[in-house]
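hey so i finally got around to running both of the ones u sent me last week. sorry it took forever, my laptop kept dying halfway thru and i had to restart like 3 times lol. anyway pasting them below in the order u listed, first the sequence line then the structure token line for each. didnt double check formatting much so if smth looks off just lmk and ill redo it

first one:
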Amino acid sequence: MKHMNSEVKEERTSNEKRIDLFLVPIVLIGAFLNLFKIWTDEYANAYYTAAVKSMLQSFHNFFYASFDPGGYVTIDKPPVVFWIQTISAKIFGFHGWSVILPQALAGIGSVLLLYVLVKRTFGVWAGRFAALAMALTPIVPAVSRTNNIDSMLVFTLLVATWMLFRAVRTAKFGWVLAAFAMIGVAFNMKMLQAYMVLPAFYVFYVVATKITWKKKISFLTTATVLMLAVSVSWAVVVDSTSADKRPYMGSSQTNSVLELAFGYNGINRLTGNTSVTGSSHKQPAQTQQQTASSETKQNSNSSADSSQSSNQRKSSSSQKMQAPGGGNQNGMFNTGNPGPFRLFQKGLSDQISWLLPFVIFSIVGLFAGVKFKGPYTTKQKESLFWLAWLLPVAIFFSIAGFFHQYYLIMLAPPIAAFAGAGAVALWSMYKQHNGWKSWLLPGGILTTAALQVYIMSPYVSSIGVAPIAGVGALGVILALVLAVRKQRKNSLTNYLGAAAMVVLLAMPAYWAMTPIIYGGNSMLPSAGPDSSSGMGGPPSTATNSKQSGFNGMQPPGSSSGNSSSNNQMQPPSGSSNGGQMPGGSSNNGQMQPPSGSSNSGEMQMPGGSSNNSQMPNSSSSKSSSSKRKSGGMNAEVNKKLLNYLTKNNTGEKYLFATTDSTSAAPYIIKTGEPVMAMGGFSGSDPILTVSKLKAMIKKGEVKYFYLSGMGKGGQSDVITWIKENSKEIPSSKWQSTSSSVQQGPSENGALYEITLK
């Protein structure tokens, strides 16, 4: 008997170590979606790419995650992900793909972790389906193909989940500490967003461990203290360092990491009340609806107080669409309006919600018959963990005042886990004719197909009627046939069940491929036929579905002769932190060029050159470059300006100063030279004063200033002083004349020189 038990144990161990051949194609699918063509993205999210370029130059810049090589201001996030990106760039060389690679690998790693986490308890087929659902959740590859943080964040939280599950299985306190410490590491990736999973960790440990309440409280308290210590470790070091010995903490108003974490990157995300210097910029719902629509069809003057044109107002009203249960869906950054059905609204549903009805039916099946006081099976305990992850995060996104579409990747793991576990559980109930529970499978298939038809309906002009009608018809037919054949057990029924799962994953798979098919956007990643716009709306709101970058948005100095100005999108104006792009803020959700330049919707590089640098992936582009320069700040630098500044530099630390990071980032990426973004990412950070600027000029640190407006967020006095105490450089000396449409400094900006004795 002992010998037989030993053989069984060895066979089980062998099976666990054996490679699952069904997992191989799933991982390959994930690898393709996350990695294919990332080498065409030259700049990625230029704000973060510029930081990596700077961090490569010194340990000082590396530790603080400095945006610029001069160590003037940091990016607006903690450094851990950017440390990893910098190491990748050090190993493979500084390229767009080398800073994207860690996130792409993290996306693949998340697929594998879902398989491991679900398989052990719910079975191998549940693990396979969960992994496949994770790989095909559209927002997952869309984010993983960029150098934004969220893919790495989710992977880290899944590692923490694996540690927690191991802690419960082995009853070892060390794994509990490791799990919570890993959440602390995740905090140093994206601050309070990492804490979204804490309800799941606490609930699961309390329910799943068989120890006394005294030990549970003691262990969780100790683990929480460790988590908090790890979380604030970098912040305490930075905040305790003298301000003159480190960069300014970007996007904070008090030069504090802790203020950034719990304010700007914390509670303000929930309230939407992101304000600067005490003035609130919270928008009423109607204004947000108009703003979101105008983001995709912008042709107004881009100063901070500009109003929408009549065409934009018409566009705003014509593009409204009702969500289930009512409510307009054109919220800020196309994230809909707060409410219980927000995740089913346009702009969000096609990123994450394809399988939500099936998940709801799965939850009902998995918890059917569970008593509040227990006892609970292992499956029920782990189902409770995923539910405690899913619900709080879903509630947050249903009520939050401000977030971007790609944050929804936080919902992908629990949705994928329930899709995998639920598919197996509902199939088992269906095959066993388990009363009312046997109807959950056909019911889940039918409602999920119906939602998918609803999600796709705004995209008829882009994808055609056939796939929409096909999913709807097949979903209804398969659900009805399964309902009719409930009493029959044969291979045909098995094939019908498998076919239903294929139908439910077909359109999410297509949506997940859209960043490859149509081009992605590294600054505001999203999936869909308009994925290159980064706005996640239907094709009618995008200028060209095959155009990469910000809907054809051009940075300062780059205008396109092939696209209309009212299809140009614009980056943050540097006004108010109220509705930002990754790494910063714009004016109440409206994306504008830096510092209020009036470019008629176009953005200009310093020097105001209009070099016809249409996005290379645009169908109308004839660019010779094979690289896609997405991320908003994506045109070639003005070489004439660069040559002028380099030639006339007399030892100054900074090549030039400008109002915000939009103008500075491409020059940092291309040259590695220090360029000062005086007001941080958006131009609204209160970093510089007139007296401080005078001291810098007297020390010979900076003498050239590219200004495209009056400045925002407390910069007005500085900009006014610069203009009053400088000489303007004639545009003929630095402005490019390569374009047939040349715009002068009065329209796009001017270059100034200051020398103080």
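and the second one:
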Amino acid sequence: MTSAVQQAADSSWATTTFRLASSDESSYAYWNRFCGNGQLEVRYNRLPPQPSKAEMTISPGGKCVTGPSRPYVDTPPTMSAVVRDYDHNDNAGLAESLTAQFVLSRLDSATGKWTQVTDGPFSTAPKTTYSDPANSQTGMAKFSAKAGLAGTYSAPRTFTLQENVVYAWQVRGSDGQGWGPWSSAPPQACEFVYDRTKPAAPTVASADYPDDDAPHPGVGDYGTFTFNSVSTDVVSYRYEFQDGTNGTVPAQSGTGRPGTLRWAPTSSGTQTLTVTAVDAAGKSAESPGGYSFVVTNGRAPAGAWKLDDPATATAAAGRTGDPSAAKGDGVTFGVTNLGDMKDKVVSSFDGSQGAHLSTSSSVVNTAKSFSVSAWAYLPALPARDMTLVSQDGTAEPGFALGYDATTQRWVFRFPESGMDSLGEWRVLDNTKAVANLWVHLAAVYDADKRTMTLYKGGQLAAPPALRRTSWNATGGLQMGRSLGLAGYTDHLKGSLSAVQVYDRLLSESELATVSESDPDQVGYWPLDEATNGVSPEAAGGEGLVLSTGASVYQVDDVVCDELDPTCTDVPAVPLWGDGHLQLDGTSGFAERRPGLFAAQGSFAVAARARLASADPGKDQTVFSLAGVNGQAAVVRYSQTTKRWQLTVTDRDAGDATAVTPAGPDSMPSPNTENSGDHLTLAYDAVFGEVKLYVNGQLSGVQTLWPNTWDLSGVSIQVGRSLTGTTGGAYFSGALDEVSAYQGVVDQYRAVRIAAGVGDAT
């Protein structure tokens, strides 16, 4: 009955029926007897099932992969698989003993056929199974074998894997009574390629920037670089330029496995490019390809207008060769005394239909890379959209740089098309615009990357955005308005200066230079002398008025020769220069009345300070900016943190919200010796950031200042805090070199101020 039972098991029959019959049912010589004790005993065995590809891996190489994404390895990989058996623990405590076989097949690339390697499979040592966590009556064991082995674990044979050939591997299990089925066969088997040879160094060529020692244009202009390799298995090239730009480009099929890169230089001079060929196994050339070329400065603007024309001019003059921009009747030339740059000569736009400057022809191709920059001023945040610069298309502008009233932010936008556009691509400033404040804006379109980028004050104003449609606007350049379906719209009420349009990319380093505006030193008090209780301002401006308890310390005549060893009466050296302000810590301070700063705008105040004691036991104010009811900013020694500290408030009120940026624990304690510490409070109104520099170094995390102060109404209190009419936190020690600036003081300038370069330019 064995064959019948086997057939029933193989066919998964639900029932099997057997019948007993006599040898000859027609003869009474035969008879049957049933005693109820007959039985049929079946001993069964299930062979291990087909191993799962999900439990098959190679190392190196990873999971089982078939096809083009197969791993490339530079050492013969170890193949691993899990073999199962369903007869585990059928009798309590009975564990199966399993073994496995691994076999390799090789692909003939010419015929596309798979051939099992001649050395055949490799048999592993038997292993006792352990229970599958998902089913206690299923046994499992993990087996491994290194590719390149045949025979058995006790008598292995080795063979050499061929390089750059596709191998497929299979595995099957045995329970000692028979072998289960092989795992998936090629072309569905697990695959790998063995590759231990590093690719050759690649070659580099560029028609735009050849390696010929001659200078080639230039910063902001894209060039094409082509990489090639004699190694046929190269899949990519890693590259790195001198400025740190790096990345990977894929290798294409064909002779030389070429890779193509588009790149625009960000600086002039000799540039170096290093390229490394990488094969599918991840190996790179031992000798990278080196390439050098010379880049000139970026091309001058395609059009530039200073907009400092005389009041009688009828058009804005460009440079020699640039088109002039005809003046509408809503534009006034020769305007000064606006906002925080009172000496700037600019063009003012009144917001009417005549508020525009227009060229008769286009300046840039808006489908290609270009940049536009301008200084802009809004006397108030408008309730409608306004345009600074645009270029005419047929019924829409090719681009527009301007102000978005809904968000109150600067915006750089492209209509979807030049006709009746269904939408637009735009990038918005991250922070709101600020009224009554000059700001430098720059917009850059990168046609290769199709990205729009907006810069403010030379810094990135928002992450780049994609422009998904591209077209060229061939009309004239407009300053102060943009084209719409019903005619020109979004007329500017404000002022413009230094509009520049480039037919290339502007680099960030160029933007930082173009947007720079040196701060003006509006006050410098060396505190070397005092007359009738006033220490003069160096340029003849309003002096600091000294209170009782404040005096200017100077060195009098030396009583004895300081080189004389018997001399014991050598006077102390002033904090800086010929004298310093000496304060008693109870009532002494110096004051500069309101009216020094513009109502809104970037500014800085600096001073040198030396505490009389390393642990004074209370807060001590170096300087503060006091209003009628509160203080805009206070720079002090904090007894709690035992560090210099900055605090700012949002408005001139007794219940104003105060913000104190946290300083790092690593910041040193105040220096109470020699020339003490130099402290600079710097506020950038364009970005709303306030910082405290100690000896030219940023002392804490910069923070946004929710500033609504009219800064023209604050006084400078040197050596005390002042809330309303109540003074406090008086400074005990020496203060010196007080200075004030209108404009942005960055770290470079803070270092110069701390070093004693008073004008910080």
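quick thing i noticed on the 2nd:
The radius of gyration is 41 Å.
anyway thats it, ttyl
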